[in-house]
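Quick one: structure tokens for this chain, please?
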Amino acid sequence: EPTENLLVLSFVRGGSGWLYDRADYVNLVALPEVRKELAAGDVRYLKETPEAKPSGVVPPVPAEVGPARYIAKVYVFCPGRELQVQVNKVSRHRFANAKEAEIVIGGARDGDNEVQFTVKKLEGGTNQEAMTVRVYLMSQVPGVKPVKAYEYLVKEGEAVKPFVTERFQVDAAVAGRLGGGAR
């Protein structure tokens, strides 16, 4: 049975017709009234919410990147909020009222890596919810667990910065752990 949440599919019109752009999963657990309205066939929320409307702008062509040195995932838990996350100024991600992870385009690199994100309260959110942003590095060695390279954690009731730019390092010790060395 399908969940009572939204899956928003975005398309852009290209020279050869409509092309798939992206899919956004919107968890409505923090918006019970919206969930009831949609279940009753009332789509007012979709008409009034800017994030649910097409922007009318073709998204920028992503920068070409070479093979990833380290496979990375960005994980976000953001009930009641929308986060726009960027890793190493290349991989862009949007999370709205979500608990999910996405692959980082270009992965992580040796040395300095950057995580940048903006936070916006969504309708129905209280701005008091807990929130987490993490970057995990994935090993290619069977049985080796992911390494948490970065974490921004806000406990329930704590203040959230609207804009964050922070760094994490991938050094020899981290590379060793990914390769199955010291844990």
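The beta strands are 6-14, 17-26, 71-77, 81-87, 91-96, 99-103, 111-121, 131-138, 147-154, 163-170.
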